[in-house]
Design goal:
146 residues; alpha+beta; Archaeosine Trna-guanine Transglycosylase, Chain: A, domain 4; five-stranded mixed β-sheet; 32% helix; 30% strand
């Protein structure tokens, strides 16, 4: 899942409790899914992961009522992001974990030539090169180090 750097930082600082998405033909995210975070913008790196808790889908107004508020780390800029869509989604952030180090887009492309981060998100499965060559080694390193 591509997330702007300031929101990724807020997730891993434990401040942001929901990730909001406009729904435009995007598949559902089941509760319990592992979300790998690609920090976009000037960071351009895979930085960590979190588990999807409850996933809410509905009108932007309904999603805003569920996810907004200082206690959830979701501010007015999130409303500006979802308000024009027909449907929106709020993904509860559970167990955010930073990887031992970010893996930059340049590094990823040296391992997997031509790899492109998702515009919003995409499903990846075991066997996918990004899982086998990047994510699993990061997770193993983290478990050994921590």
């Amino acid at each position: 899942m591509s997330i702007r750097p300031k929101y990724a930082r807020a997730i891993f600082a434990g401040v942001k409790k929901y990730e909001l998405r406009r729904i435009v033909g995007l598949p559902s995210i089941p509760e319990g899914s592992l979300i790998v975070v690609y920090a976009s913008g000037n960071v351009k790196s895979i930085v960590g992961e979190f588990t999807a808790g409850k996933v809410y889908r509905g009108t932007p107004e309904n999603i805003w009522n569920i996810a907004s508020g200082k206690e959830n780390g979701v501010g007015e800029d999130a409303w500006n992001y979802i308000k024009g869509s027909k449907k929106a989604m709020a993904i509860e952030v559970r167990n955010p974990k930073l990887y031992p180090r970010p893996v930059t887009l340049d590094e990823i492309r040296r391992i997997i030539p031509g790899w492109m981060p998702p515009m919003s998100y995409r499903q990846i499965d075991d066997g996918d090169p990004i899982v086998e060559l990047i994510i699993k080694p990061l997770r193993s390193y983290r478990s050994l180090a921590g």
